[in-house]
Specification:
The protein has two domains: about 100 residues, no CATH class; about 100 residues, Glutaredoxin (3-Layer(aba) Sandwich), CATH 3.40.30.10. The longest helix is centred in the middle third of the chain and has 17 residues. It has a five-stranded mixed sheet. Helix content is about 40%, strand content about 10%. By secondary structure, it is an alpha/beta fold. It has ten helices and five strands, in the order ααααααβαββββααα. The two termini are about 25 Å apart.
Length: about 260
């Protein structure tokens, strides 16, 4: 949603004390209903929604809105943008304070945390392009994916990689119809999403049997080759319009109607 806030080191550190949920707007009717309960001016679901809720998921703790900037300050309403260090740190500090107010019941999950998979490769390309982050696809049959996940989860939640990359599972070559350069029949596939989130290019293919020690080195090298878009929000919109790029969501996009109502 907003790389400048959500990848900030203080926010990443504080997030370890939260249950973080990523819902894709206009992709699932049930998820849309959840988002509308958080932020929907005039009952109209917006394209982006951000909120921090009480543990029961019913009450907003900070001001809900289209992005973290609505709650913590900064250039609200400008999409992908850079914030000042002070504004981004404010989000991390606020999250730490909230965590103290809701300490939990003292129990922790047993065993390694699962990979935070996005819904599918189509959505994953779009999300990672929006966040200007690389994408890792865990590609293979169920048994192969289980073995790769066992090694990858040793790294995914480490300080080096947490918050810097996103993940998706893939079981067949047909899943990669929008990705150029795939040669492997299984493995950990590091992908560079193109700026408009409709396709991508393979950066590196890491063999399915690679153990965590070597996987760490290969993954770090591959992520280092990722080149995020440097277009501003307005430049991005103009370039997309000129190129005829358009994302087709699975449920109706009501954001335009909400904006007209606000005006």
């Amino acid at each position: 949603m907003d790389r400048s806030f959500l990848s900030h080191k203080s926010v990443v550190a504080a997030s370890r004390k939260f249950v973080c949920i990523r819902l894709a707007t206009y992709e699932d009717a049930a998820e849309n209903a959840v988002l509308k309960r958080i932020f929907a001016p005039g009952g109209t679901l917006q394209n982006t929604v951000f909120g921090i809720l009480t543990p029961d998921g019913k009450t907003s703790i900070v001001r809900a809105g289209r992005s973290p900037a609505w709650a913590f300050g900064g250039a609200a309403g400008k999409g992908i943008h850079q914030q000042t260090e002070a504004v981004m740190a404010k989000m991390g500090d606020t999250m730490e304070a909230i965590a103290l107010a809701y300490p939990g019941n003292g129990t922790e999950s047993k065993g390694p945390l699962p990979l935070p998979y996005l819904a599918d490769l189509r959505v994953a390309l779009n999300v990672t392009a929006c966040d200007r982050q690389p994408l890792v696809a865990v590609y293979g049959n169920a048994a192969q994916r289980k073995a790769m996940e066992a090694e990858l989860t040793k790294l995914a939640w480490s300080d080096q990689f947490m918050g810097q990359v996103q993940y998706v599972a893939a079981s067949k070559a047909a899943d990669f119809t929008s990705v150029k350069g795939l040669k492997a029949k299984s493995g950990i596939i590091v992908i560079q999403p193109e700026p408009f989130g409709l396709s991508g290019n393979v950066i590196r293919e890491i063999a399915a049997g690679t153990k965590a020690g070597e996987l760490k080195n290969q993954l770090a090298q591959a992520l280092g080759k990722h080149k995020p878009s440097e277009l501003t929000y307005d430049q991005h919109r103009r370039a997309g319009a000129q190129a005829g790029k358009r994302w087709e969501s699975k449920t109706p996009n009501t954001d335009g109607a909400g904006r007209r109502r606000q005006r």
